[in-house]
Automatic annotation (TrEMBL):
Any single biological process term in GO: protein polyubiquitination
SMART domains with a match to the protein in the record: RING
Lineage: Eukaryota, Metazoa, Chordata, Craniata, Vertebrata
Stretches for region Disordered: 1-23
Pfam families, alphabetized: zf-C3HC4_2 (PF13923)
Top-level division of the source organism's lineage: Eukaryota
Keywords of the record: Metal-binding, Transcription, Transcription regulation, Transferase, Ubl conjugation pathway, Zinc, Zinc-finger
MF (Gene Ontology): ubiquitin protein ligase activity; zinc ion binding
Keyword presence, Metal-binding: yes
CDD domains in alphabetical order: RING-HC_Topors
Assigned GO CC terms: photoreceptor connecting cilium
Protein name, per record: E3 ubiquitin-protein ligase Topors
Entry keyword Cytoplasm: no
């Protein structure tokens, strides 16, 4: 009887990872700045990894160390989105 229980728990049917779907749902257009955890103010992104931050947040961060807070890639430029569309 206990064998049936184990078989149910290990059932491969419907056991596909739902995590990828959940993760893509997290990335919403109005996502938040990973530095201040608030909505983006003057959204900007880095030249290397294209991660997005508030312009002020990443500017302050770059004074400490010019590398991405998320992926640790060094960056040389911060692109301010408003000025790109200008
Ligand atoms: Zn911020
Ligand atoms: Zn990054």
């Amino acid at each position: 009887m206990s064998a049936i229980k184990v078989a149910l728990q290990h059932s491969p049917k419907g056991g596909r990872h739902k995590t990828s779907k959940a993760m893509s749902a997290e990335v919403s257009p109005d996502s938040k700045c990973p530095i201040c955890l608030d909505v983006f103010h003057n959204m900007s992104y880095l030249d290397r990894c294209l991660h997005k931050f508030c312009f002020r947040c990443i500017l302050e961060w770059s004074k400490n160390k010019p590398e991405c807070p998320l992926c640790k890639q060094p960056f040389r430029s911060i692109y301010h989105i408003n000025s790109i569309y200008h």
